[in-house]
Specification:
Blueprint (H helix, E strand, L loop, with lengths): L8 H4 L3 H8 L9 H17 L5 E7 L15 E8 L2 H11 L9 H11 L5 H11 E6 L16 E7 L1 H5 L3 H12 L2 E13 L3 E4 L2 E4 L5 H10 L2 E10 L11 E9 L2
Parallel strand pairs: 1-2, 1-4, 2-3, 4-5
Antiparallel strand pairs: 5-9, 6-7, 8-9
Helix pairs in contact: 3-5, 5-6
């Protein structure tokens, strides 16, 4: 299939529930547990427990209705604000926050988090802590100067963006442009944490194939450094299992901070 015919996440949208079931569930057919669940959890815990990344406000900009990457944050930030580009993603996430019937079950991810953290006795409290901290779920538009206009948010101590830039960017200039918009939400001295899939050109949700921006570790590092950020940690993990759902070569985790 010609890549020009691929759907675009922020233009066409995808079924957020199907995205969760395909890539983040406990389904036996879900073969990317190491890359999509364990890798983010391990690296976030390392960054937070080192004591440098913490504060009052964390802003998350990630695709779909994922929440597993926030389990590590609720012990280090008082308030979590989630920004979403799609109404369906907001509704799916709110269904979980409000503990409504039919909400996606994140129990498997909570247990994984507890295992990595070494605190298996308290895994049942983790989702409750995230719900208490997650006070606002707000729609955003990355094409606007103020991406949540007319709302004005206080500057964040930390921003997490998991796989969003991979899905919305078409070329390198897009990556830099959107990165700058994220950094406007960050206070001086604040941290940004980015997850990405390296050298991916497509991913599938159901029968639909979606565009992905392909880049390597050197590009990701250079993009942050050229925006004045100091990289604190960068971890790269080679792909563990191949499948027909996407073609990424590896996962990248970068934690960086903005100079005062």
């Amino acid at each position: 299939m010609d890549s020009s015919t691929h759907k675009r996440y922020h233009e066409d949208g995808f079924d957020s529930r199907q995205h969760l079931e395909s890539y983040l569930s406990d389904n036996p057919d879900m073969i990317s547990v190491e890359d999509s669940l364990i890798f983010p959890i391990e690296n976030l815990l390392k960054s937070f427990t080192e004591g440098h990344v913490q504060g009052d406000i964390l802003i998350d900009l990630s695709p779909g209705s994922m929440v597993h990457h926030l389990f590590a944050a609720c012990d280090f930030f008082k308030h979590i604000i989630v920004l979403k580009m799609r109404d369906q993603c907001i509704m799916e996430l709110k269904r979980w926050v409000d503990e409504r019937t039919g909400a996606f079950d994140w129990n498997h991810a909570t247990k994984l988090h507890a295992d990595v953290e070494g605190n298996c006795d308290q895994f049942q409290d983790k989702e409750g802590k995230v719900r208490l901290a997650l006070q606002h779920i707000v729609k955003c538009d990355l094409e606007k100067e103020n991406i949540i206009d007319p709302i004005v948010l206080p500057p964040a101590d930390c921003i997490i963006s998991a796989w969003l830039l991979d899905m919305i960017c078409k070329e390198k200039d897009d990556y830099i442009r959107y990165l700058r918009k994220l950094l406007k939400l960050l206070k001086p001295g604040g941290h940004i944490i980015i997850f990405g899939s390296l050298e991916m050109t497509f991913y599938t949700i159901g029968k639909h194939k979606f565009h992905a921006f392909s880049y390597d570790e050197d590009f990701a590092r250079k993009a942050l450094v050229e925006e004045g950020l100091i990289i604190d940690r960068c971890e790269v993990k080679k792909r563990t299992v191949m499948n027909d759902h996407n073609d990424y070569k590896g996962m990248i985790f970068i934690a960086a901070h903005k100079e005062m």
